[in-house]
Amino acid sequence: MIHADRNFDDLTERFARNIYGSAKGEVRLAIVWQHLLQTLPQLTAGKPLRILDAGCGLGQMGLKLAELGHELVLSDLSEKMVDQTRTLFAEKLPDVAVEYIHGPVQEMSAEELGQFDLVLFHAVLEWVAEPKETLEHLLTLIRPGGDLSLMFYNRDALIFRNLIRGNWRKAESDNLQGEEGGLTPYNPLTLQEVEGWLDEWQFELLSRAGVRVVYDFMDRKMREARPTEEVVRIEMKYAQQQPYLQMGRYLHLIAKRA
Fold first, then answer.
1. Element (H, E) at 205
2. Res. 117: pLDDT tops 50
3. What is the pLDDT at residue 93?
4. Which alpha helices (H) appear in 43-185, and where do they start and end?
């Protein structure tokens, strides 16, 4: 039983190289970014929004939002990732004022930080010990009428990946939690359960998309042969279509607080 939220201080360099610096990371970032712009036209309307990126990683998404002129608060449980995000902004946008927070989401409060027009929570939910409780707390930081951008690791895609690899015992065991120190998330989640939570908390689902609904199932040589731009194009074509969206390695939901 895993009791602590995952801190990636020990894997920051590996993440930078194998995830954020890889084609799969580039595809993930492109799909989520295009889905955000498509669903939330206010991002490009010229009026600055107050945005929290909770679990900012190495800051790539935050950088894109800052380039559009938005006011940013960037937080992460990993001190090393916060430091690398500072470095990225110092290099790319040295004149932009950004607030950085090193610490757990559970300790962030609306009383201290105020509320936000948009909160991002990308590839974090599956790494916390209590995903529902953590997400419910985070949503208190969204103002009424504000939006949530939530990306999480898809349990159904993990099961299917084990099935097609012949890991049938693993798939049938229903024991899909990752081990301490590994890269399989502690709590992969299903679309149905997360959408159920949002409905319970009276959040209106605006849009959903699968992230890497094609790429992760392609032959490795074929993936390497295809230009990233072409992969993104085909991913976006099917990302919001059933049944393909439920095949995504990640699921990306955008929802509005009533």
1. strand 203-211
2. yes
3. 96
4. 60-67, 79-92, 110-113, 131-138, 155-164, 168-173
Residue 180's pLDDT band (boundaries 50, 70, 90)? Answer: low
How far CA 193 is from CA of 6, 20, 131, 152, 185, in Å, comes to 21, 28, 11, 12, 16
- Quick check: 145 and 250 in contact, CB under 8 A? no
Contacts of 184 (CB under 8 A, 6+ apart): 158, 176, 177, 178
Question: Which amino acid is residue 16, in one-letter code?
Answer: A
**Residue 238 is encoded by which pair of tokens?**
């099917």
Specify the pLDDT at position 89: 97
Work out the burial of residue 83: count CB atoms within 10 Å of its CB; fewer than 13 is exposed, 13-18 middle, 19 or more buried: middle
Answer whether 236's CB lies under 8 Å from 34's CB. yes
Amino acid making up residue 208: R
Position 168 pLDDT exceeds 50: yes
Residues 26-53 have pLDDT tens digits of 999 999 999 999 999 999 999 999 999 9
Q: Measuring CA to CA, how many Å separate 143 from each of 116, 151, 202?
A: 6, 20, 13
Q: Which of 238, 228, 36 is nearest to 150 (CA)?
A: 36
CA dist 203 and 217 (Å) reads: 32
pLDDT for residue 8 is more than 70: no
User: Which backbone phi and psi does 28 adopt, to 5 degrees?
Assistant: -60, -50
Query: Any idea which of 7-16, 66-75, 160-169 has the lowest mean pLDDT?
Result: 7-16
Question: What residues have CB less than 8 Å from 134, skipping those under 6 apart?
Answer: 5, 105, 106, 125, 128
| Interstrand relation of 71-76 and 50-54 (parallel, antiparallel or unpaired) | parallel
